[in-house]
Amino acid sequence: MNLTLRYMTLQDVPQVVYIDRLAFDLPWSEHSYAYEVSESTYSYMVVLEAETPALAARGWRRWLPLNGRSTGRRIVGYGGLWHIMSEAHISTIAVHPDYRGRGWGEILLAAMVQRAVVLAAGFVALEVRVSNTKAQNLYHKYDFETVGTKSHYYRNNNEDAYDMRLPLTAANQQRTGERFRALQARHIFADLYTAHEPPRAQPGRMA
Mean pLDDT throughout 160-188? Predict the structure, then answer.
């Protein structure tokens, strides 16, 4: 499986928005993603791209273009990281429903944590629904700790969110690096994200 981890571009936004609407009850708008990619100076948006035949889609999704039978490169997952002063904040993360269960969400999480290390952040923060135990288990695997609860955080049903944080101590940075390298060895993906600057920061190029 040919996988590439890289920065999100404006050309990726339609595919990302499509996955976002499948994954969340409160998806971001296309404008929001375009802003994160082309205007925000603190955003580090990532995508996981695969070159693979489309998997057999379920239900009505088999009629949509993303799930066609042709081969080619497609976005299978994405994530968002904000870096403001000492905080690196994971703003979003999702994998296309037809490609879940492969460990690709873990690649995205580990990559954003590793990017936070490269950016010299002091800690990584995120919010997660109190009912989303599957995601919480993954975050605990990466040494995130629950530091509080944000009441009625999600607007669609007023569900609370756990405030989870990972202090980027020397020990945690070492473990993060080891886990990321282990994922690279297992999944064999190209990494054009964790140690690279976003396109907006490169002279002569547009995001």
Answer: 97
Task: Print the SS3 string covering 136-156.
Answer: HHHHHHCCCEEEEEECCCCCC
Distance between CA atoms of 137 and 153, rounded to whole angstroms? Answer: 20
Q: Do you know the residue count of the chain?
A: 207
At residue 95, the 3 state secondary structure works out as strand
Could you give the C-alpha distances from 154 to 24, 71, 137, 177, in angstroms and in order?
11, 37, 20, 32
Tell me the pLDDT tens digit for each residue of 4-40: 999 999 999 999 999 999 999 999 999 999 999 999 9
Q: State the Cα–Cα distance between residues 198 and 9, nearest whole angstrom.
A: 9
In the chain the first and final C-alpha atoms are separated, in Å, by 27
- What single DSSP character describes residue 73? E
Instruction: Using DSSP, state whether 100 is helix, strand or coil.
Output: coil
> Alpha-carbon distance 182 to 175, whole Å?
10
**Minimal CA–CA distance to 164: which of 128, 121, 134, 129?**
128
Q: What's the pTM?
A: 0.87
Domains and CATH numbers, the chain: 2-201 (3.40.630.30)
